[in-house]
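Sanity check. The docking grid for zinc ion depends on where the pocket ends up, so I'm generating a full predicted complex first rather than guessing from homology. Inputs follow.
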Amino acid sequence: MRFDGLIGNSGVKKTLETPFHAYIIHGPKGSGKHTLERILTASLVCKSSEKPCGKCEQCKKFLSGNHVDISYIPTDIKVRELREKLKDVFYLPNEEYAFENS
Ligand SMILES: [Zn+2]
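Predicted complex below; grid placement will be based on this.
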């Protein structure tokens, strides 16, 4: 996984060499949480061998905020709104991804 733009955090980068089914990203303001979240998310949908490439169609859709298989959740979302969004997690993705067969 490529960590372009994520400065420092060598321990996090080493840990993420092994993929997990879920991540909790926690840390002080300015520690790279949002950057890491974007890298992880783009890596899941990227079709390139160097993930995330930032150039393939999937990466471009994600980076533009228009990827149909990704829910963009604001940090100030209300509990009721989040519960509504969680109803969508049971839908199958529109695209086929490598991790679905692993
Ligand atoms: Zn890509």
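Relevant for the grid: The CA atoms of residues 71 and 89 lie 9 Å apart.
Also worth noting: Residues 46-48, 52-53, 55-56, 58-59 surround zinc ion (CB under 6 Å).
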